[in-house]
Amino acid sequence: MRWDNLVENTRETGTGALFAADAVTTRTFDTPEFRGITFHEIRARSIVNRVPGASRMPFEWTVNPYRGCTHACVYCFARKTHSYLDLDTGLGFDSQIVVKTNAPELLRRHLASSRWHGAHIAMGTNVDCYQRAEGRYRLMPGIIEALRDHANPFSILTKGTIVLRDLELLRQAAEVTEVGISVSVGFVDPELWRTVEPGTPSPERRLDVVRTLSENGIDCGVLMAPVIPFLGDHPDQLRATVRAIAAAGATSVTPLVLHLRPGAREWFMQWLGRHHPQLVRRYERMYADSYAPTWYQRTVTRRVHELAAEYGIGPARRGEPRRIPEQQEQQSPLDSPGPTQLTLL
After folding, report:
1. Which of 256, 232, 239 is nearest to 325 (CA)?
2. How far from chain centre, in Å, is Cα 43?
3. Hey, how many other C-beta atoms are within 10 angstroms of the C-beta on 328?
4. Cβ neighbours for 125, distance < 8 A, ≥ 6 positions apart
5. What is the DSSP pairing of strand 19-28 with strand 38-44?
6. How many CA atoms lie within 13 A of 250 on its CB side?
7. What is the rounded end-to-end Cα distance, in angstroms, of the chain?
8. pLDDT tens for the 345 residues of the chain, in order
9. What whole-number distance in Å separates Cα of residue 102 and Cα of residue 88?
C-alpha cells in the first residue's frame, strides 16, 4: 500500500502531512459482519476538507471519517480514491477500510480555531459515515457533539441505519443549528438492491430511518439515487419508489441519474456484463462519457417531480434550512446546458 500518497512531503508543500507514516495500525475482526474486511486505523492530521473550487458540489467543506466503504455499491464514484493508495478500486474499496480514529478530537479542535467561521459541513458525500464500521468505531457521536457544541450547521447523507443510534444527539444539535439529514434510496426493487448495493441495509429499512427521524421531529429528505437506466427507470418502478418515499414521510425527494466516472465505471461495467450482458452495448452508447445524456436526465427528473407532487412531496423549497437535496436541486445539472450531474453517490 502506498501510504506516501496521503503523507505529504512537508519540505515541498509547506503543509502538514495528513497522517504520520508510522501511525497506521491494521486490524481484522473475526466476526460475521466484518469477516474479510481489513481496517487501517490512522491518526489523521486533518479532518475538515475543502471541496475543490472546480467542483459543482453545493457545499464547500466536508468531513470524512472513513475511506473505503463496506456498502459495496457497484456504482460508487468514490472508488477512484482508493487508487491513490495503490488499493484496488473494486473489491479493495469494499474491504480495505481506512479509519481516522481521531476524527472527533480533530474536528473539535478545528471548530475552536479563530480561523474557522462556522461554515456548513457536509458528511457522507464521499463514503458513508454510517457504514458498518461505524458500529464498532463510533466516530460519529463525537463528531456530532463537536458540531452541536459549536452550533455549527451540518448535513448528513447516508444509506446506513446506524444513524438512528445518534437520534438524541441529532435532536440536540437541531435545537442550536441547522441540521439536514438525507437518506439515499434510488429504488425499492429487492432484486436490484441485492446485486447492486449488496452491503447496504434494504431500501425498506432505509425508509424506516426516514420514518423514524420524521416521527421524532427531524426533517429528512430522500436522495433518489441512483436511478439506473434500463434497470430502475421504468415508470412503474419510479412510481413505486416515490410512493414508498412519500409513505415514509420524507420532506423532499431529489432524483439523480446514475453516472459512471473512472474507477466506478470499470467496476460497474464488469458487474453489468455478469448480470445483464444484453445491456452492455446500450450502456457503452449511452455513457460515451461519465454522464447519461442531458435529455434523459431531464426526463427522469420531470417524471419523479410529477410523481412527488402527486404524492404530496417535492423538491426541497428555497428558504428552508439547508438540506443536501435542497442544494442539489438548486444546482441540478438538468437545469444546465451540459452533462454536469452532481456526484454525491
Report:
1. 256
2. 23
3. 28
4. 57, 59, 62, 64, 157, 324, 344
5. antiparallel
6. 33
7. 25
8. 455 444 443 333 333 444 555 567 888 887 888 889 999 999 999 999 988 765 566 778 999 999 999 999 999 999 988 877 778 889 899 999 999 999 999 999 999 999 999 999 999 988 999 999 999 999 999 999 999 999 999 999 999 999 999 999 999 999 999 999 999 999 999 999 999 999 999 999 999 999 999 999 999 999 999 999 999 999 999 999 999 999 999 999 999 999 999 989 999 999 999 999 999 999 999 999 999 999 999 999 999 999 999 999 955 443 343 333 333 333 333 333 333 333 343
9. 25
- Distance, in Å, from the CA atom of 253 to the CA atom of 248, rounded to the nearest integer, reads 11
Contact 253, 313 (CB under 8 A): yes
Question: Which one, of 208, 218, 213, 220, lies nearest residue 252 by Cα?
Answer: 220
CA distance 143 to 108: 8
Q: How far apart are CA 187 and CA 344, in angstroms?
A: 16
C-alpha triplet 292, 68, 167: angle, nearest 5°: 95
Q: Where are the beta strands (DSSP E) in 177-314?
A: 179-184, 220-227, 253-257
Q: Is residue 177 within 8 Å of 151, Cβ to Cβ?
A: yes
Place of cell 473512472: 262
Which three cell numbers mark 88? 484496488
Rg from Cα positions in the chain: 19
Give the helix, strand, coil percentages of the chain, each rounded to 5: 40, 15, 40
The amino acid occupying position 31 is T
User: What are phi and psi for residue 147, nearest 5 degrees?
Assistant: -65, -40
As a whole number of angstroms, the distance between CA 15 and CA 26 comes to: 26
3-state secondary structure 5-16: HCCCCHHHHCCC
Which residue in 190, 182, 192, 184 sits closest to 74, CA to CA? Answer: 192
Phi-psi region of 282 (alpha: psi -120 to 50; beta: other; left: phi over 0): alpha
| Distance from C-alpha of 263 to C-alpha of 249, rounded to nearest angstrom | 35
Nearest Cα neighbor of 86 from 100, 103, 98, 76 is 98
